[in-house]
Every structure is written in C-alpha cells, then in structure tokens.
Amino acid sequence: MNWWHKSKKFLGVSAGIPEKWKNQHWQDVPLLAIDLELTSLDTSVAAITSIGWVSGINGQTDLTSAFYQVINTAEDLQQSPVIHGLTAEHIAQGDALAPALQKLATMLHSHIWVFHHAPLDTQVLSRDMRLLDIPLDGMLSLDTLCLEKYILNRAQAVFSRDSVVLSDCCRRYGFPPAPAHNALDDAMATLQLAFAQLNALKVFPHKVSDLSHCRSLQVY
C-alpha cells in the first residue's frame, strides 16, 4: 500500500471538496494563482493596493491569462510604498476594486484558486467581495505554504517560519529569483511553486480529493 492510500485510509478524504473537483485528476484541473498586495497584515483593516493572477494547467503556465491591476484606495498606505514600491501617486492613478473582483469571480468555479498563505488573501477577498455583493461561495483553494510545510514535515526536515516564505520555497525548487512584492510576479511564482510541489508529490495521476490529507485544500 503506497503512502497515498495509507494517508487516505488514516485521515479520510475531505467531504467538503465540491463534487465538480473531487474526482478530477490534477493534470486536468485549471489552476489560478492569485496574489494581493495589502496595506497591512491585519486582515480586519487591510486594503488591497494591487492584485495579480495567472492561470495554468498540467505544469504549463498560460501567459495570456496574466492580469495585474493597481487599486485606488483611500486607506493609509502604511509601509506599502517601502515594501511594494506603490506610492500614493501610483495608487491615485489606480483603478476601482470592483471591476477587478468581478472579473476574478468569473473564474470562481472554473479554476482551483492557488495562494501562498491563503488565509491572508482569502480573508481580505471574502470581506471585500461580500461588501461589493460579489459571490464567493464554493471557491476551492490550494495553499502552497501549507503544502510546503507538509512536504518538509514528510521529509522530516527542520525548518523555520521564515523558510516557507514564497522566495525561499521557490529557491528550494531551483527557480531563479523573481522580483518580490509585485502581485503578478508573486502570482506567477506561486503557480510555478504549486506545479513543482504537485510534481514532487507525484499527484498529477491522482484525483483532487487525494490531496485532502495534506490540509492544503480549503473550501469557502
């Protein structure tokens, strides 16, 4: 009995995964990697300053799907100009949030959404989409940070919290360094990381539900 079946027998398969995805094989599943740049790590007050996403399937990135938008917000930028390079002038020339989230919502059920540290981005998305009356129900997400922790624990590797940041995770898989703290660059790096992780776990011949035991899938 291989480790997939041992894990499934011990932990069970998540009943929460939507039927649409449960029996699909990973190589057939479109992934949409999303990244938000925020004014704060406190999700109760954080405002989106930029959003980026890109899709791919079976290890291939669809560059034509790449999307990036700076968002006009009146919220205090705090350290955003230092961290993300987005100044008040950039933000003032940005676009409204609603059209970007409406466009994103069109891919709610056609893709599994991928984040690095999903709780941060999904809490902000959930709040803002609710305020804008944009449905988010039924979204299935894959968290590459959570998946990397699983992979490292499985290898009995000792790691720190800092070693699972996106840049360090990508470095472990041999990816060249990408510009940090740009929403589209981070989304593309997250998608690459997801493909590398799924390949390392040899999940492409397996069903989506087979990854439930890794605790990296979440339904909203």
Automatic annotation (TrEMBL):
Keyword Zinc: no
Any one Pfam family match given in the protein's UniProt record, by short name: RNase_T
Exonuclease domain ranges (all copies): 30-203
Domain of life: Bacteria
Keyword Hydrolase in record: yes
Molecular-function GO terms, alphabetical: exonuclease activity; nucleic acid binding
An individual GO BP term: DNA metabolic process
Sorted UniProt keywords: Exonuclease, Hydrolase, Nuclease
InterPro entries named in the record: Ribonucl_H, RNaseH-like_sf, RNaseH_sf
SUPFAM superfamilies found in the cross-reference section: Ribonuclease H-like
Protein name: Exonuclease domain-containing protein
Biological source species: Paraglaciecola hydrolytica
Upper classification of the organism: Bacteria, Pseudomonadati, Pseudomonadota, Gammaproteobacteria, Alteromonadales
